[in-house]
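User: Modeling request: complex.
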Amino acid sequence: MSTRAFGARVQRNIDPQLLRGEGSFVDDIPLAGALHVAFVRSPFARARINAIDISAAAAHPGVAAVYTCDTIGELDREMPLLIPHPSMKDARTQRPLARGDAYYVGQTVAMVVAVDRYTAEDAAALVDVDYDPLDVEIELEKAILDEAPLVHETHPNNVAAHFVQVSGHPDKAIAGAEHVTRVKVRVDRSTAAPMECRAVAATFDRVTGELTVWDGTQAPISVRGGLASILKLDEDKVRVIAPHVGGGFGQKVLLFYPDELLVPYAAMQLGRPVKYIEDRRENFVGSSQERTQIHTIELYAKKTGEVVALRDSFLHDTGAFIPYGIAIAQVASTSIAGPYRIPNIWVEFTAVYTPTVPITPYRGCGRPQACFAIERAMDQLADELGLDRFEIRRRNLIADAEFPVLRDGLLFADGLAVSLDSGQYGKALEMLAERLDVDNFAAEQEKARREGKHLGLGMAFYVEGTGLGPYEGGHIKIHPITGKVYVNTGLTSQGQGHDTVFAQIVADQLGVKVEDVILVEGDTKAFDWGVATFASRAAVVSGNAIHKSALIVRQKTLTAAANMLEADIGDIELRDGAAWVKGTDRAVPLAAIATATNPLRYAFNEAAKAATQFAPASRHDGPALAEGQHPGLEATDYYSPACATWAYGVHGAILEVDPELCSVKVKRYVCIHDCGNMINPMIVEGQVMGGIAQGIGGAMYERIEFDSDGNLVNANFVDFLVPYATEVPQVEILHLETPSPLNPLGVKGVGEAGCIPVGAVIASGVEDALRPFGAGRFHQVPLTPSMIHAALAAA
Amino acid sequence: MKPPLFEYCAPRTLKDAVAMLAGDPGAMVLAGGQSLIPAMNMRLASPARLVDIQHVDGLKGISIENGRIVVRAMTRHRELELDEAVFRANPLIREAMAHVAHVPIRNRGTVVGSICHADAAAEMPMVLLATGGSVVPEGPRGRREVAAQEFFQFHMTTTREPDEIVVEAHFPVLPEGAGWAFEEFTRRHGDYAIAAVAAIVEPSAGRVSLAACGVASRPVRLEASEQILAGAELTPERIKAAAEAATDAVSAPDDMHATNAYRRHLLSALVRRAVVKAASRAK
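Assistant: Request completed. Predicted assembly structure:
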């Protein structure tokens, strides 16, 4: 093992299993005699519930139970507000089953448990709910008007939160500005659309008193804590397992979805396993969404293009409830100045209740909206000042020597002031310019126009605060029999490749093969300290925790090996699954060291036989384990980041607009990306590519459509247009590696990066292509053929 | 997304199939199931009885007889698309079928099933209309032939009686020397058409046949455009006029995928492209 695993393009450990169809998702867990759940959901966006008659449903053959808010005991309560903030008063969260009022189409009103899902759905149709529908206003800008119907009587003008943040001295800077650019932009609502919808299964063992829950969640430790609290069980009597999970993108970390509480409750009540497998329509109407924001942004500049101040005021749609508090709006507002120096910032947002599916973070979490606002404004500023789009950015990008850049007064989602830690922004921009041959593009564009083709160049820069705390842990143990290395952390994986990148980190320290490092995560019985997978934080927070643990195990291994080989510790090296005396052929396998460090041996295994050939692993008099000594080669350590570390990148595209079909074809798409030191460039590229694919969705295709009554009218994959492989362009990804100074591995997060700038890139490119038509500006995504047609028709 | 209870019948003869269909007013015909099964899973359709015709004798296969391509009821899309004799007899069919959903769906879905489903934005009903084809329903009162022009009434509504099974669709072969073209625009590859146009240009007869889908409550012949092009030289000006005349065929209101104004603009462009391409292929 002479080459370093960290930084290598190592194949993903998990792929053979998943590609052979041997993955085990919640619905694959065999639970004999399991009952199945179907929900009765509100057909009205806002309604009073006068009465619920379950008698026909309860009498339906095969039905085990029908629950309403009156029969779920201690669960009949508002679910927790995850992140309180003083900008919100009386923040509203959902109840597991509606009591008295329904607040969006799809809200759970009653739960049917039956022998199978068919029967459960049949019976759900028999639950008779007497509703009085109420007036609704779905459109964000109208929902805040005085005459708008209220989602919650407690919140006038439907205002859920209002917050202003200031950095520097914007008033003074604005007074001295020579030019102002004002842009109003809108990003519409989308949904994560994970390949596997959400799922929960539970079984309660009356003998041991243990509740076991399989949950397709990103946060099993938190789910366990919540279940233990609400169901009044000891935490160690609740085991939550997130098995293989088919994509999450933030949607699977709500704490709690109604089913996550109700399914375990029903399993305990009924004494049988209970399963809820969400279907696609339910995922559309019952699981969180994100994106709608309307920004009005102003850039105050000098004639040179130097932006001296920024003002942004935006509306944020939070749906019917606000369980995550202001997290998304806060991330958007603190990312609003992007990669630019802009020293003076005033940013205000109003979070607005609408009677729609609740909003929680979806990959990007406010950043795509902020990026769309600042980048569209930068393009317009360039035009107004007669500057090139690259030049305006050159004049405003933070220079390498200026890091760290503190945006005092802007508090990020971790509650700490924004501090951009490192980067090579200027170099990234020049790499993009060179790769796209920007200098010659105007000539190419002109030539194409003469041939009747309309090419456009689009570009956008972004930054992303990643690796949020508070902490994660890593536990590492070298197996005494096989010498394999087991690693536990409190995260879960939804396909990211944690098992490979964490193995790479450990493999280097312990001198073992990547495939001999086995990661176990997503099981509270295996490791139960930690937070969850979200906010592009796994590599940064768990990665460094595992690294720290690996250093301890490495030291223990070296010490034991030095004793066994009777050599100086400085002469020991770990490679090829063994400890070697440098420059000799004297070695002891890790399995033998792990065995020798355990005073209890197993005489029948090879490692034990090998261990006896060497001197003792530990030299001391007295009991087998010296005071303070632990058996085996094992350690647990934690990492708690001081603050977020900021990744960044710049994307550019050459696209062709057909003014007859009003279609957009992306001919080239280039991504320059920097997430600090890369643990595995192939996995980084996979993350970036997946993000860009979702970004293409948000830029051109995906829009959740509500009618004026609040019905989600495209709750299916025919009408909600997730891009296929045929719609996602080839992407050229180029890397920069500017280490983060904030953590031992020098890494930054990458999970969300790809999706952030794509909307701005496409709008920028379409605008450029249609300039000769006088089609104006494109300030809304998804950017559709109908919008291009309207712009051309108005020109 | 689970269907309610239904009775499942798998008859072996057409006579039994017709009797089973007629025997229950809540019965529906199941062929490839690519539209009906999802509709049942979403409980948008709740047939009391499914009459599965896949095992019925005599409903499989394609033949070309008397200037017509006869497509029997259980013929999968993919069979028709890949049939070389069909391609030689009427290449418009293969050109259009590349736009019908995706290969896995074309492997299961049937041509006649798509025609009977009669989605206003579907390709195959429109191709039947463009070629001047017909369908053959059979019911307790016997067998009849219905021209495409009379068959399609409204979105998902045809003149098939509830107790009839459409056993064949007839696509006329392309007239000697005629040129053809199929032009479609979708938001994503394989989606239902925002608008699509089929064109057949017959120089010897001085006739241009044009049909469109996705633009109205059913597939439509673009008669105003056809008249402008009839018996005349297909100059750019005349084609442009025909393309503009087509916009009146757009009656679809604004929907989530396209505004009415955009659909009009789009249809015009597709008509022009289809006529130019079809004319270039004519002999």
